[in-house]
Amino acid sequence: MQKRRIIFRIAPYNRLSFPILLNAWESRQIDRHFEIIIRETPLTSEPFQEIRKDDVVLFSFMTPHLPLIHEEIKSLKGTGAIIAGGGPHITHEQELTLEMGFQVLFIGPGETNFLNFGMDLLEYKLEKIKIYPCPTPAASSSDLNTYVPIQKYMHGTPPLEIMRGCAWNCNYCATGLQNAIYRNLESIKYFLHLASTSAKKIYRINFICPSAMEYQAQKGRQHEKCLAKIAELLHLTRSYGFKFIEYGIFPSEIRPDTVSSEGIKILKQYVSHKYVTLGAQSGSNQRLKELRRAHTVEDIEQAVSIINDEGFMAYLDFIVAYPGETPEERWENLQFIKKLHKKYRIRTQLHYFFPLPGSTYGFRFPAFLSEDEKAGLRELKEYGITRDGWVDNEKQMIHYFEWLKRDFPAYYSRYEGTQRNFSSS
Ligand code: SF4
């Protein structure tokens, strides 16, 4: 008998999400009952083997990807396939995604929900619309320590998630809305053992940790008490003989106010990279306060100084065009970046703000930059001072709002702030 097909729609932005779910299914042998298909290209890009009416197509995505996902969902309409989705957008917003055509939604961390989904498929218990609720913190903590992102269907092994959630609550970020939980060392050891003996030949080990120097912080915000735990984590990782160990760069960036000489010395002892990444976010104290970052530009400069003194280059991430951001704040930001560039060994990346549901700024328009300001940012790129991720981010943001205004005008009308004249054609 033909097995039911489960199509994992893989894209660059969700490569880190699916392996842990596949691991959960493999560990309970649920995958054996299905034909697992890893689909790397859009379902709209070429004739797919005809979609069968009992197929299940799985998506995982963030808000900026919605217009792309929508195109694929439209191509699935009328086929009878079940369209299921999870990830950061769906966790915080279900109304739009249901309207787009999703029938199954996973809220919050996915492991338990995905197992329940597998069982429901096997028992043919799935309702027409099914929303799997967010697991309790205790269940999420247990899942985090039970499953690891090692599986047999996808190439590569993503970074190991060791911290879920964040004790801070920055206005533009949706990560901080749950209390942080941590993967324990036993679970990390289990992963390292599997990785070191895997037929996939894994040379590089890295970690997902929203605030790298706060791994295992009790109630968060006590980074000075975390250093021994971080040293233990990195020492343990080293003991397995991996060629490359990464910590303190994406996806485990560092908050500026958690940098200390002692902490950076620990990184230096174990990591294989020559730079560490700071989430600086703005060079204006007024803006940092408005964002509820709870650190200052002076903290950023001090962190950069320590990082350079310990022999690392500092990579700094900044965001421009926050809602309500003033031209003066943007000017201060640029002056700050130029000053740091003169005094220290740094590289900077500029991102353009995007509103994420679940964050305080979830339904705010960005502050749009003037042509002169954009010219100023382009000049920084030409002088080698910053990288210009903001250019693509801005295009993506404009595409998103144009799509929303055209296809979902009622949802679009929920956004507040100064809007530019987005085309709706
Ligand atoms: S931006 Fe960073 S520090 Fe702030 S809430 Fe998000 S993950 Fe935490």
Could you please describe the fold and organization of this structure?
- The strands form five sheets. This protein has a six-stranded parallel β-sheet with strand order 2-1-3-4-5-6, sandwiched between helices. Strands 13-14-15-16 form a four-stranded parallel β-sheet. A two-stranded parallel ribbon has the order 7-11.
- Helix 13 links the parallel strand 15 (346-352) and strand 16 (386-387).
- It has three domains: 4-132, Cobalamin-binding domain (Rossmann fold, 3-Layer(aba) Sandwich); 159-272, Transcription Regulator spoIIAA (2-Layer Sandwich), CATH 3.30.750; 274-425, Transcription Regulator spoIIAA (2-Layer Sandwich), CATH 3.30.750.
- By secondary structure, it is α/β, with parallel strands linked by helices.
- It has 15 helices and 16 strands.
- Helices cover 38% and strands 15% of the residues.
- The structure holds iron/sulfur cluster.
- Iron/sulfur cluster (SF4) is lined by residues 166, 168-170, 173, 175-176, 210-211, 255, 279.
Looking at this protein, list some descriptive labels:
425 residues, alpha/beta, Rossmann fold, Transcription Regulator spoIIAA, 3 domains, four-stranded parallel sheet, 16 strands, binds iron/sulfur cluster
Sequence of strands across the biggest β-sheet: 2-1-3-4-5-6
Please report the first level of CATH classification, the CATH class of the largest domain.
Alpha Beta
List of distinct ligands in this structure: iron/sulfur cluster
Helical stretch count?
A: 15
CATH architecture group name of the largest domain: 2-Layer Sandwich
Largest sheet: 6 strands, parallel
Radius of gyration from CA coordinates = 22 Å
Mean pLDDT: 93
DSSP helix fraction: 25-40%
Number of strand segments: 16
CATH topology of the largest domain: Transcription Regulator spoIIAA
Q: What is the number of domains?
A: 3
